[in-house]
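Notebook entry, structure prediction.
Reason for the run: the old model in the group folder had no record of what sequence produced it. Starting over properly, with the input documented here first.
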Amino acid sequence: MADLPDLDPRAVALTVFRALPDGTGREYTATTFPQNPWLGCNHMIRMAKACGFIARCAGQCDCYAVLDVLDEPGDVIQDFCIRTAQAFRWFYRKLDLRVVPEEDDDA
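New structure, fully documented this time:
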């Protein structure tokens, strides 16, 4: 885990994406930290790293889910591999994640 990169200084929020067995994906809500966005993101990354819950994403990684780091406009600027279902559940609770509803294609 020591090879994880430092958190990007533009980080303001964290979110998760998970590929499902049927080939579709599931997006989760983004979590921000109002008092100090970068510090909040960094704290979560450091806790997850200490627990062994995240790893470096390298190309086609075999992860349970992906932790995306977002900048102010909402662009993904960095990502980490969430290694296991247990790690995903930890993030789900800690970040109070919820599934983002799919957009209606008929609208």
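Summary: The mean pLDDT is 91.
The old model has been moved to the deprecated folder.
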